[in-house]
Amino acid sequence: MELPARSILVDEATQPPPRTKVPDAAALLAVAERAAAAPSGGGRPASHVDLDRSLAGYAAITTVQYDAHGRPAAVYGLLVNAPALGATLFAAGASHPILPLGRNALLVSAPDGSPLFGGVPGRGGVRATIHPAGALDAMAVTVVAADSLVP
C-alpha cells in the first residue's frame, strides 16, 4: 500500500504543548504502513497499538479500513502519551490484583524495554513475561511473584 506523505494530517488543535516533540511525518507514515501491512482480521477494521521508538514516547493507536476486495484503503490513528496509555489499560487490573501486593510486581513495556506501566524488582521472585496477540502485540507484560507465594 502506498501512502503519500501529504496524506498524513495532524490536527493542530489537538497537538501537545510546544515543548513536546511530535513525531515527524516520516515516523507517522511508517506507522500507517505497518498498520496497513498487519493481518486484517478478515477484512474488518483492525485496531493496533504501535510503540515504535521513532514515536518518541508516544503510542500510536491505529485502525485500518479495507475496501471491498479486502485491501487496506485508509489508516486512521491518534497519538497518546505511551505511559499514560499503559496506566489507562492496566491500572484498573493492578488495583484489584490476583496476587497480594508487596514484593509482587507488574511491568508493561514497549519492545525497546521502556516501561509503560508499573515496575519489577531487578532480581528475586518468580517471573513470567507474555507478549499479547492482537492489538496489544507491541507490549510485553511481566509479572513477578514473591518466592513465598510459589509452591
3D structure, described in words:
The chain is an alpha+beta fold. The chain has two domains: 5-81, no CATH class; 83-149, no CATH class. The protein has two helices and seven strands. The chain has helices at residues 25-37, 82-95, and strands spanning 46-50, 58-66, 72-81, 105-109, 115-119, 126-130, 140-145. The strands form two sheets. A four-stranded antiparallel beta sheet has the order 5-4-7-6. Strands 1-2-3 form a three-stranded antiparallel beta sheet. A hairpin with a 5-residue loop joins strand 2 and strand 3 (72-81). Mean pLDDT is 75; it is low at 1-18 and 99-103.
Features:
disordered N terminus, 2 helices, 151 residues, 4-stranded antiparallel sheet, 2 domains
Number of individual domains:
2
Number of strands: 7
Distance between the termini: 52 Å
Spans of at least 5 consecutive residues whose pLDDT stays below 50 are: 1-18, 99-103
Shape: elongated
Quick recap of the structure?
This protein has helices at 25-37, 82-95, and strands at 46-50, 58-66, 72-81, 105-109, 115-119, 126-130, 140-145. It is α+β, with helices and mostly antiparallel strands and 151 residues long.
